[in-house]
Specification:
about 30% strand; single chain; glutamine amidotransferase; seven-stranded antiparallel sheet; Glutamine Phosphoribosylpyrophosphate, subunit 1, domain 1
């Protein structure tokens, strides 16, 4: 379980999105307002961001709570970016792999986070192991459910799947193998955001000054925040958000996508 956030838009200090808002990710680490599972996100945190002219993101991750890192707020005050993904963690298995288990996970231009838990981990996903290249399994960054779900997503991305499709297919595959799992996934390339709402809260905001924020919960009381329905795939750019219903593994075809207007 965790709280996470992704942003695309005009250049902004990291702190302007994570620390300064009255209910930002920094505060959500000890006082989330809409978290359905768990109450404190103190088992690690991380932020990944993109620098101008470099498509490969930088990451800053720690095993402890974000409020205990005396350097982070100062770093976030001066580092600026047009795209980021950040998360604060409530571990499914306490102490598992420390900093390596903290989102965002990364590969190439992508940053990834998982808010939720795989039911029956690790045994429930044993049938999915054969679908991954051996090198991917041997190079997992951490021994937890989120790292394994990331490996499933990454294999699809490397196979040529579009980002939203990779998330949707992974969610349905994991949900079929482990019913009752919570699978809110968040992915960015620095140019787009893809996310799923599957078992926990997800919101988005298209900011009047430009930019899109996708987050587990609103970081302020701006009335323009919109909640994403459960069982939904979100695809966002800096100006537009597209919502597509996700079917349960045994459901028939779902309706065509609907485009939400920017506000």
């Amino acid at each position: 379980m965790c709280r996470h956030l992704a942003y695309l838009g005009p250049e902004e200090p990291l702190g302007g999105l994570l620390v300064e808002p009255p209910h930002g990710l920094y505060r959500q680490s000890w006082a989330p307002r809409r978290q359905r599972y768990g109450t404190v996100n103190a088992d690690g945190f991380g932020v990944g961001w993109y620098a101008e002219g470099d498509p490969v993101p930088a990451r800053y991750r720690r095993a402890g709570p974000i409020w205990a890192d005396v350097s982070f707020a100062d770093l976030a005050r001066v580092v600026r970016s047009t795209a980021l993904l950040a998360a604060v963690r409530d571990a499914t298995v306490a102490g598992a792999d420390q900093e390596a288990a903290a989102a965002p996970f990364a590969a190439g231009t992508w940053l990834f986070s998982h808010n939720g838990a795989v039911k029956g981990w690790p045994g429930s996903l044993t049938p999915l192991v054969s679908g991954l290249p051996a090198v991917d399994l041997l190079s997992l960054e951490a021994r937890n459910d989120s790292a394994f779900v990331w490996a499933l997503v990454l294999a699809r991305l490397r196979g040529g799947d579009e980002e939203g499709q990779a998330l949707a297919d992974t969610v349905l595959e994991v949900a079929e193998a482990a019913p009752g799992s919570r699978l809110n996934l968040l992915l960015t390339s620095g140019e787009t955001i893809a996310a799923t709402a599957w078992g926990d809260t997800l919101w988005y905001l298209t900011r009047p000054g430009g930019g899109t924020v996708v987050a587990s919960e609103p970081y302020d009381d701006d009335p323009h925040w919109i909640q994403v329905p459960d069982r939904t795939l979100l695809a966002a750019s800096r100006t537009d958000v597209l919502l597509t219903p996700l079917k349960e593994p045994s459901d028939p075809l779902v309706p065509a996508p609907s485009k939400e207007p920017s506000t």
